Amino acid sequence: MTPGKSGNISTKISYKNRNNILITPSGVSLKHINLKNVIVVDEEGNKLEGHGKPSSELFMHLEIYKKRVEVNGIVHTHSPYATGFSFSGEKIPHLEGFGKIKNPNLNEVDYAPPGSMELAKIVSNSLEKEEVLILKNHGVIAIGIDLDEAAILAEFVESSAKTSFVARILSREPILTHLMHSR
Ligand SMILES: [Zn+2]
C-alpha cells in the first residue's frame, strides 16, 4: 500500500485538554515506524516530541482535522492500483462496501504538488462530505473516526481498484452495472 518511503498516517489524541496529532516521520518507511520516531505535534503543527521531521504532508493532515473535528485517523497511500487508475485518467468505480459514499465513482481532486499548502486546502475542502479521495497523479487519502477505520477504507480503495482492473482485463469492458453498489 505504501511502497518505499511513500505514504503517511496520523491520529489525533486528547492530552491535558488539548488535541495533539501523532504523525509518521518524513523519509522513513512505514514499516520502520516505532514509538521513538512517531512525531507529536500540536494542532498548529509545532513539534512537541519525536526524532526527525514530521511527514511532508503534515499540513494536509492538519487542515483535514480542522475541517472534520470528528475525524481521529488519516491514512495517505500511493497504493499502486488506485494511483495507476488516476494516472490513466480512469475512475475507480464505487463498489459494494463503501457505505456512505454515493457517487458512482470515487471522487478525485486536481493535481497539486505533494506537500504543498495548495494540496492541503484542495483535499481538506473536498473531504468535507467524503471519507475518501483520489489525489490526481499522486495517491489516495482516507479518513475515519479512528485510525483503523481510515486504514480499512484506504485498503478497500486499493482492493476496489484491483478488482475493477482485473474485471476489465477479463471482460474487456469497464466494470459498471454488474458490480456497482445496489441499494
Ligand atoms: Zn503522497
Structure description:
This protein is an alpha+beta fold and 183 residues long. It has one domain: Class II aldolase/adducin N-terminal domain (L-fuculose-1-phosphate Aldolase, 3-Layer(aba) Sandwich). Helix content is 30%, strand content 21%. It is built from 4 helices and 8 strands. The protein has helices at 58-67, 80-88, 117-126, 147-171, and strands at residues 8-15, 18-23, 39-42, 47-49, 73-77, 108-109, 132-135, 139-144. Strands 4-3-2-1-5-8-7-6 form an 8-stranded mixed β-sheet. Strand 3 (39-42) and strand 4 form a beta hairpin. Helix 1 (58-67) packs parallel to helix 3 and helix 2 crosses helix 4 (147-171). The longest helix is centred in the C-terminal third of the chain and has 25 residues, at 147-171. The protein is globular, with a radius of gyration of 17 Å. Zinc ion binds next to loops.
Map the helices and strands.
Elements lengths: L7 E8 L2 E6 L15 E4 L4 E3 L8 H10 L5 E5 L2 H9 L19 E2 L7 H10 L5 E4 L3 E6 L2 H25 L12
Parallel strand pairs: 6-7
Antiparallel strand pairs: 1-2, 1-5, 2-3, 3-4, 5-8, 7-8
The protein binds zinc ion (ZN).
The site of zinc ion has 6 residues, from loops.
